[in-house]
Every structure is written in C-alpha cells, then in structure tokens.
Amino acid sequence: xxxxxxxxxxxxxxxxxxxxxxxxxxxxxxxxxxxxxxxxxxxxxxxxxxxxxxxxxxxxxxxxxxxxxxxxxxxxxxxxxxxxxxxxxxxxxxxxxxxxxxxxxxxxxxxxxxxxxxxxxxxxxxxxxxxxxxxxxxxxxxxxxxxxxxxxxxxxxxxxxxxxxxxxxxxxxxxxxxxxxxxxxxxxxxxxxxxxxxxxxxxxxxxxxxxxxxxxxxxxxxxxxxxxx
Length: 229
Known about the structure:
Blueprint: H1 2-25, E1 31-38, E2 46-50, E3 53-54, E4 70-73, E5 75-86, E6 89-100, E7 105-113, E8 116-123, E9 133-140, E10 148-152, E11 155-161, E12 170-173, E13 175-184, E14 187-199, E15 204-210, E16 222-227
Parallel strand pairs: 1-7, 9-15
Antiparallel strand pairs: 1-4, 2-3, 2-5, 5-6, 7-8, 9-12, 10-11, 10-13, 13-14, 15-16
C-alpha cells in the first residue's frame, strides 16, 4: 500500500512540474511594435540599435526610408541609438532612452540635419478610422525653424506644426487625386507639396516634412507619406 501511495505521489509531482513548464512556454509576449524612420537630412544611411543590439531591417536604413513595425523588447528605459553607417564606418548620430509597453505601437524618427539631429518618439494609435475615412498625422523633421500649416486638398487639417513636433492623428475623408501642402504662413514661399495623392478608407498615414528651405535636390524641403497599416 505504501508503495502504491509513493508511486501516485511521484506521478502527481511529475504532472505538476510538467504543467508549470508548459504554462511558462505560453506566457504573454513581452515585445512592443516599433517603426523606425530616417528623416535626417545629410545623414545618408543609418543603423539603429536597441539596448546595444542591431534592429532588424534598420542596419542600413536610407534617407526617407522606414522599417515595418519591428518587435522590440519592452522596458521603461530602452536605449535606442542611431549611427551613420558609411561603408561600415560607424559614426554616432543621436541616442535616447524610451519607454515601450508590450503590445503597443510606436514610431521613432530621426530628423533635422546630421550636424544637428533631432529624435522624435510617438505612440501610434492604430485603431481603425470610421468607415469612409482615413487617419492622418503630420511630423516636422525639417532643419528650419518653421511652423507649418498642413493641407490635404483645400482642407487645413493642422496648424503650427513646429520643428521636431508630431501631431495626433486626424480623420479625413477617403479621397484620391489630391495635393498635400505644408506651408508656413509667415514664410509662404517656404513650402513643400505632393500632388495626386490618395488616402484610402481604413488606412492610417503619417506625412513628414524633411530638408531645409535653402537646400537643393535631396536636401530641399520635401514631403514623404508613410503607411502605418
């Protein structure tokens, strides 16, 4: 009888620890979803690390390019570092620690110009817009000190979007063939436009301004539309 009791007890212990092991393997994910955007004029190709580890898809991120949302370990002080990557020669650009919550979405931008870069960190509201609408926000990464009014077609969606700032998302009617305009009312000649743009129903976009008003080619004021979903 004692032998039977011992065998049953041993079996119970084995089942208990087996159940504990199985539970730990199915624990909740501990990563946030982070998009990285290179809007730094003159920086060329950059690479990004998170807590010293290279970020997938961001080891050779060209100007105006962005990654899909990457899985980054959550934490209250995740160290993100941007460096210029010139044929393997790595030069630090800018770094900052941010708080990332598991399951949430974020965008991290580097902007300005490479001699005076800026770092922008934003939580991304990925909730779907109403039927027949898109969601749009604006970010000013230009190296100039300009306060932009932002238009989609004839609609002034946002005003006073200053350097190094990002707006909340706004709902706009889904539409196609419209012009996007960023213009500083105090400096009306300092503007950037994109023509024949489409904003689809249910889609989420970020429109960013880069460059400088005195620049030419890739350093001139310009707009880039990012698809967040």
